[in-house]
Write a structure and sequence with these properties.
The chain has about 220 residues and is an alpha+beta fold. About 45% of the residues lie in helices and about 15% in strands. Strands 1-2-3-4-5 form a five-stranded antiparallel β-sheet. The two termini are about 30 Å apart.
Length: about 220
């Protein structure tokens, strides 16, 4: 099996973090293409049939522009940090209808010392968030099973008070306060560079299926 993430991938990102300037990147652009971009696009392409077995509505898009692999360029228009490049590679596998409706995603983050997979919804807009909360209230036992199978990441992203319109004494009020519904798995750099990493990532996505299915159906999309 091929390794899509290699020590060269991580080395390039590490060097980019220490040389986050246009001049350096342009001088090393061929390395970026060969060591980061193209191998990760091949990962996306190889993951497509595996993802289809998890859900035929989730998409692995290997296009160079507008596909699953995020651009390396940062949008600095509204940021104090004017560094032009991201120092990680991000890959998002979206729902086929996710462009029109905020839907759950599978996500892979590649960065030296910070490789992880995530699944779920990060800070969805208020309408989608209400749909998820309503689903938790309507199907509390199903949500409990989901939470046991896919521990939700605790990152402090909660309301201090119960959301308006929901019972403050509800037994799942702590979950109703959430603004993000994400489960995640960390990998070592060695695991990321191993020949079986794609299978390992696929297994991680399969384990996240109960959460993804619950959230997807909550926002009225097919799983």
């Amino acid at each position: 099996m091929s390794s899509y993430v290699t020590p060269k991938t991580l080395r390039f990102l590490d060097e980019l973090a220490n040389n986050n300037k246009r001049e350096w990147f342009e001088a090393n652009k061929a390395r970026y293409v060969e060591e980061v971009r193209d191998p990760l696009l091949r990962l996306v392409e190889a993951f497509a049939p595996k993802l289809a077995k998890i859900s035929r509505y989730m998409v692995a898009d290997p296009r160079l522009v507008g596909g699953s692999l995020f651009r390396i360029h940062r949008d600095t228009r509204f940021s104090r940090d004017k560094s032009p490049y991201k120092t990680h590679a991000g890959i998002s596998f979206r729902h086929a209808q996710g462009r029109d409706i905020h839907a759950p995603v599978f996500y892979l983050h590649i960065q030296p010392g910070q490789v992880f997979a995530a699944a779920g919804m990060w800070r969805p807009p208020s309408e989608s968030l209400k749909h998820v909360r309503d689903a938790i209230v309507a199907r509390p036992e199903a949500w409990k099973r989901v939470a046991r199978a896919c521990p939700i990441r605790e990152d402090g992203d909660r309301l201090k008070r119960p959301p308006r319109g929901y019972d403050p004494t509800h037994p799942l009020v702590d979950d109703l306060k959430r603004q993000t519904f994400i489960t995640s798995t960390r990998f070592t750099d060695r695991q990321a560079c191993a020949p079986d990493f794609l299978d390992r990532f696929t297994q991680t996505c399969r384990r996240a299926t109960p959460l993804m299915e619950f959230l997807t159906k909550a926002v009225a999309l097919r799983w």
